[in-house]
């Protein structure tokens, strides 16, 4: 049995283990004498581990004390097998006198030195004599080895930990000793594990980064020292661009030096929080609550059926029903969205139990019924086929009802408005004495709800108080708070047989915040903050999961996987769990790099090895307390040039208390480190903050868990909602509630940027929080992405514009606090700087054409030094790509598609983003964006029809110009060299090589312009001809022909 010392001098042992610096020892086998000396039974020399058994690690230096089983007798080992058991008073007992120390220490027996009682010794001696007498019989006839199985059967012996023998009589070990039942208790298990990338991949990767960095530095120095005297302007432009590219590559590469993987243990989560225990006798769920936010704004661009399927997938997740709440924010206040959500809740009453009964995946009905695989795979219940057929018919009827809602609402409104008009005319005639009316009666064309009342949101014929930007706040709880106990179904002829299936569905609420003229509503960030406040009043889940309306739950266990990180040891320092974005409906070739796997599987995985991934706007589980702007319970500060000096950060909460007692000095040197104070005038909301913080703590079930909560603290059921509570929730979503508060500045989603997601995550990291990247085996969430070139470029334009705004704002990482790690700073610096690379990229893409047109090149000649540097840089880049593919799991084709779209987006959307950002900063011109459409093209037969739709945009001009100029320059350069008296082939080869490099990156853009089967729109021909003529005339004027 593996043992270590259990000396009472625990403090001295801890100090000695930390001070001793010798290398770890190998495991040794021995027995312990009555004097405390351990005699070696291995081939090594005797070892003296007396005293405190000093060593440098309790987990490494330990002794395996051999038990007295028949094939391992301590007496035989020490005296050649001639001595009997009773001639050795110092022989070890059944365990060797001490117990295994694995994180916690236990004593065995009554004796401080590990001895056992006389009765136990006598019983052991009798067993030893019987074992020795039967040992010859129990030897295997062929090998002569001891037959363990036969001995166990004949003596009814048992084995415990390792090969230690356990007696049936627990009294042999003393009443204060350890019995087998103590070791059968389940040990403490971590909920997550950190898996390092193998050193065989990571070490060469880091070495190649260093080699390429040295090569780039030497190449730039060589370029500066070897100018092209014949074309200094060409040399200068190319050198500046190459220097910036090297700097940009370094910013992108440094945060990738420490990628990691993580795994979760869902079984351990279930055992800790949902199994019967002394603190939880009925086995109720002790997991914290989760509030799921879904945001939508326009039912025309975000179809209600897509949103309804997302809601259904959320309501059916595998998480305690009473701990889950779902909210949808309709920022357009559209009655179509409202009634579609009501239909979705009605359908959820049969869809959610069906998913639980048959363990359906995915739990989005549209995705589930669109699966190409066999639906009966791994399904064992005999009524599955009948149930699936019935629920499929119900879903088809549900879709028809959703699709028919616009027409149904229109007819309803016409009917009610006609009735109102008839009433007004009748009333007017009565006032006129029954005479015919000379003037028409004007009746407001209102939008009516199903109950015959006016819709308080946006009307189809807008008037005051019913515009999209001017309407009252709306909050409707469509599904009430579920009961704390399961509600089992029963057989029903009209619906499915849900016997033994919990038919409850989580609480669901529709929210549309109040909007009034004269208020800045701050787009999506303002809508999210309104939901934060409303949910704090209604459910106050300590964790918030936010999803876009087109991102549905693909893995019903995703919430549990994220909860493993939050509830694990050290989870109280995690502000959010970011899940990767996965997309459906992308063309097989992924022409425009919509999957973005290089970022989600490469960059984000690498950031997880630092302070955590950035927040990307959807698929993220937040800690509510961190979202309120508070600090983590423990944080570190990093000082020095590279942040190499790590110290514990001061406790801001304690400093705040001292300041309130009369201290007038500032709390910190950074504004982000001040504590939030102004939450608004809602007392219910303010009281909910401390509750959310406590409920979000990990379980204090281990000595190493800090800032934990006691087990069983979350077993109290939620009270039902009452009218005053709902009224308070409506009040906190009013447009005036944020006046004179810190919402959007220090609390909640941060305002002032079109990429509020990145800024919000940055602020949390700046306070010392860390985040985690959770990649699940089965994708956690899936959504849609624009496969149309125009929509894709507009999406990239919005992201890049937000990055430019960040760079020119107080959120620039150059102004960050000392709680941000150095490499995390580099990553955020790259987020703000990468759009500016487009300026150098556009210039560099024109350089090959200028070289061909002028007959010059960026270097004097293609000498050995230039080609050697070029070859080294290219080979190291290729090898880095191969290793990055290895540790990230992306494909080489995906990596190449990312490189191609980097050039396409950099020469179009990124350049426009820099111009727009500069206009906003210098001239104060605001930037407005439209929603990315989630609808497909009109061709229902081709799911990729939208890929071939060409929507002309000004973003096409620069990439198209680059393509045409390079093609024309190639023709001119080749013609001039072929018909020249003294052809300069080296300059032609150099310019042609780089022109082909540019054109190969522009190939997806060219295919996008051609449309389906090469049908190119007329505008493309017009622009191509115009640019070609302009370039030709420019070349003739610069270099006129002779004569």
Shape estimate = globular
Number of helical segments with 4 or more residues: 31
CATH class of one domain: Alpha Beta
Question: How many strand units?
Answer: 23
What does the radius of gyration come to? Answer: 36 Å
Distance between the termini: 101 Å
Subcellular location: Endomembrane system
Main location: membrane
GO cellular component, one term: plasma membrane
GO molecular function: cellulose synthase (UDP-forming) activity
SSE diagram, text form:
Layout: E1 2-3, H1 10-19, E2 28-32, E3 38-40, E4 63-65, H2 74-79, H3 118-135, H4 148-155, E5 158-159, E6 165-166, H5 180-184, E7 192-196, H6 199-225, H7 232-253, E8 260-264, H8 266-273, E9 290-296, H9 304-315, E10 324-330, H10 335-358, H11 365-369, H12 384-403, H13 405-431, E11 466-467, E12 470-471, E13 474-479, E14 507-512, H14 523-538, E15 543-548, E16 552-553, H15 558-567, E17 574-578, E18 582-584, H16 597-607, E19 620-623, H17 624-627, E20 636-639, E21 645-648, H18 652-660, H19 683-695, H20 723-731, H21 756-766, E22 770-773, E23 781-784, H22 789-807, H23 822-833, H24 837-854, H25 864-888, H26 892-906, H27 909-923, H28 957-978, H29 985-1001, H30 1003-1010, H31 1018-1038
Distinctive features:
alpha/beta, Spore Coat Polysaccharide Biosynthesis Protein SpsA, Chain A, 8-stranded mixed β-sheet, 4-stranded mixed β-sheet, 31 helices, disordered N terminus, cellulose synthase (UDP-forming) activity
Q: Could you please describe the fold and organization of this structure?
A:
This protein is an alpha/beta fold and 1043 residues long. Among the domains are: 227-257 and 821-864 and 898-1038, no CATH class; 285-375 and 386-785, Spore Coat Polysaccharide Biosynthesis Protein SpsA, Chain A (Alpha-Beta Complex). The protein contains 31 helices and 23 strands. An 8-stranded mixed sheet has the order 13-14-10-9-15-19-17-22, with helices on both faces. Strands 1-4-2-3 form a 4-stranded mixed sheet, with no helix packed on it. Strands 16-23-18 form a 3-stranded mixed sheet. A hairpin with a 5-residue loop joins strand 5 and strand 6. The radius of gyration is 36 Å and the shape is globular. Residues 1-27, 42-62, 74-121, 126-135, 160-184 and 661-667 have low confidence and may be disordered.
């Amino acid at each position: 049995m593996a043992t270590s010392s259990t000396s009472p001098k625990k403090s001295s042992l801890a100090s000695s283990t930390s001070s001793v610096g010798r290398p770890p020892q190998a495991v040794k086998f021995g027995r312990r004498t009555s004097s405390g000396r351990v005699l070696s039974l291995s081939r090594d020399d005797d070892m003296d581990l007396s005293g405190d058994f000093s060593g440098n690690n309790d987990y490494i230096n330990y002794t395996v004390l051999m038990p007295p089983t028949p094939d391992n007798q301590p007496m035989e080992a020490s005296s050649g097998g001639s001595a009997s058991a009773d001639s050795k008073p110092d022989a070890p007992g059944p365990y060797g006198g001490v117990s295994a120390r694995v994180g916690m220490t236990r004593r065995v027996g009554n004796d401080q030195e590990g001895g056992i009682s006389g009765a136990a010794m006598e019983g052991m001696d009798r067993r030893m004599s019987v074992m020795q007498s039967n040992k010859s019989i129990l030897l295997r006839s062929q090998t002569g080895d001891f037959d363990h199985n036969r001995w166990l059967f004949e003596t009814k012996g048992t084995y415990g930990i390792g090969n230690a023998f356990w007696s049936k009589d627990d009294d042999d070990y003393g009443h204060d000793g350890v019995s087998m039942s103590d070791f059968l208790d389940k040990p403490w298990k971590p909920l997550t594990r950190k898996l390092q990338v193998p050193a065989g991949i990571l070490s060469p990767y880091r070495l190649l980064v260093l080699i390429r960095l040295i090569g780039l530095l030497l190449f730039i120095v060589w370029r500066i020292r070897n100018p092209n005297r014949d074309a200094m302007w060409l040399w200068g432009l190319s050198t500046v661009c190459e220097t910036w590219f090297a700097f940009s590559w370094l910013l992108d590469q440094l945060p990738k030096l420490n990628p990691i993987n993580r795994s979760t243990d869902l079984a351990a989560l279930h055992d800790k929080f949902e199994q019967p225990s002394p603190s939880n006798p009925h086995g109720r769920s002790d997991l914290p609550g989760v509030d799921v936010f879904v945001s939508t704004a326009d039912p025309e661009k975000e179809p209600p059926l897509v949103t309804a399927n997302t809601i259904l997938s959320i309501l059916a997740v595998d998480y305690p029903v009473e701990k889950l709440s779902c909210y949808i924010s309709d920022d357009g206040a559209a009655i179509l969205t409202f009634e579609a959500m009501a239909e979705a809740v009605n359908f959820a009453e049969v869809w959610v139990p069906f998913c639980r009964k048959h363990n359906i995946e995915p739990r989005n009905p549209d995705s589930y019924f669109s699966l190409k695989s066999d639906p009966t795979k791994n399904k064992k219940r005999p009524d599955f086929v009948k149930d699936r057929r019935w629920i499929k018919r119900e879903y088809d009827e549900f879709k028809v009802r959703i699709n028919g809602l616009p027409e149904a609402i229109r007819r309803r409104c016409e009917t009610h408005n006609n009735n109102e008009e008839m009433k007004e005319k009748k009333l007017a005639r009565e006032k006129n004495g029954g005479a015919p009316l000379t003037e028409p009666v004007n009746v407001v064309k209102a939008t009516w709800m199903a109950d015959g009342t006016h819709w308080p949101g946006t009307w189809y014929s807008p008037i005051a108080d019913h515009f999209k930007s001017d309407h009252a706040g709306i909050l409707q709880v469509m599904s009430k708070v579920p009961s704390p106990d399961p509600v089992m179904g029963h057989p029903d002829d009209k619906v499915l047989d849900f016997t033994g299936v919990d038919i409850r569905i989580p609480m669901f609420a529709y929210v549309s915040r109040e909007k009034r003229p004269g208020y800045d509503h701050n787009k999506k960030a303002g809508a999210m903050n309104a939901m934060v406040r409303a949910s704090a009043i209604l459910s106050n889940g300590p964790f918030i999961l936010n999803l876009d309306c087109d991102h549905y739950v693909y893995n019903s266990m995703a919430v549990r996987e994220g909860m493993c990180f939050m509830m694990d040891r050290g989870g109280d320092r995690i502000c959010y769990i970011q899940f990767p974005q996965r997309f459906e409906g992308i063309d097989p070739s992924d022409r425009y790099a919509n999957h973005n796997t290089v970022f989600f599987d490469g960059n984000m995985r690498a950031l997880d090895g630092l302070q955590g991934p950035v927040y990307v706007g959807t698929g993220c589980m937040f800690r509510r307390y961190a979202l309120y702007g508070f600090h983590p319970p423990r944080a570190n500060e990093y000082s020095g040039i590279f942040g190499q000096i790590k110290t514990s950060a001061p406790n801001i909460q304690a400093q705040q208390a001292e300041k309130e007692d009369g201290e007038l000095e500032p709390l910190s040197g950074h504004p982000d480190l001040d504590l939030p104070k102004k939450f608004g005038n809602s007392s219910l909301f303010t009281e909910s903050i401390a509750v959310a913080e406590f409920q979000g703590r990990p379980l204090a079930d281990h000595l190493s868990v800090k800032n934990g909560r006691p087990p069983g603290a979350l077993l109290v059921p939620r009270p039902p909602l009452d009218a005053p509570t709902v009224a308070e929730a409506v009040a906190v979503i009013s447009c005036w509630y944020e006046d004179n508060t810190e919402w959007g500045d220090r609390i909640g989603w941060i305002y002032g940027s079109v990429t509020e997601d990145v800024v919000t995550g940055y602020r949390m990291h700046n306070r010392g929080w860390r985040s985690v990247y959770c990649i699940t085996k089965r994708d956690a969430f899936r959504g849609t992405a624009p496969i149309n070139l125009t929509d894709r470029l507009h999406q990239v334009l919005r992201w890049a514009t937000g990055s430019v705004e960040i760079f020119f704002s107080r959120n620039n990482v150059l102004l960050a606090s000392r709680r941000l790690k150095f490499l995390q700073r580099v990553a955020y610096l790259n987020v703000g700087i990468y759009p500016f690379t487009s300026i150098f990229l556009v210039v560099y893409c024109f350089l090959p054409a200028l070289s061909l047109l002028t007959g010059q090149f960026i270097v004097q000649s293609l000498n050995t030094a230039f080609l050697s540097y070029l070859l080294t840089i290219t080979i190291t880049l290729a090898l880095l790509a191969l290793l990055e593919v290895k540790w990230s799991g992306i494909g080489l084709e995906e990596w190449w598609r990312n490189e191609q779209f980097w050039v396409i987006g950099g020469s179009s959307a990124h350049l426009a983003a820099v111009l727009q950002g500069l206009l906003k900063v210098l001239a104060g011109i605001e930037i407005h964006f439209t929603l990315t459409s989630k609808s497909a093209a009109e061709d229902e037969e081709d799911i990729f029809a939208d890929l071939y739709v060409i929507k002309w945009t000004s973003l096409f001009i620069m990439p198209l110009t680059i393509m045409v100029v390079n093609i024309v320059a190639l023709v001119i350069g080749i013609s001039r060299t072929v018909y020249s008296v003294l052809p300069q082939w080296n300059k032609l080869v150099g310019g042609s090589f780089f022109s082909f490099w540019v054109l190969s990156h522009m190939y997806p853009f060219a295919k996008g312009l051609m449309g389906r089967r090469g049908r190119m729109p007329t505008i493309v021909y017009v622009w191509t001809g115009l640019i070609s003529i302009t370039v030709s005339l420019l070349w003739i004027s610069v270099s006129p022909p002779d004569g």
